[in-house]
Amino acid sequence: MKDGRGAVTICFTNNKGGSGKSTSCANLGYELSAAGKRVLLVDGDMQLNLSLSFFDEEKVLDMAGNGKNLYEAVSNRRDLQEYVISTPYENLDLIPSSILMSQIEYKLFSMIQREFTLKKCLKSITEKGDYDYILIDAPPTLGAWVINILCASDYIIVPVEASPWGFFGLANMFDFLNDIQDITDAAVMGVLITKVDERKNYYKQARDILDHFDRIHVFDTFIHVDSAVEWAQDASKPVSVYKRTARSAGEFKKLAEEISRYGSR
Question: What are the angstrom distances between the C-alpha of 248 and each of 8, 29, 53?
Answer without folding.
Answer: 24, 14, 15
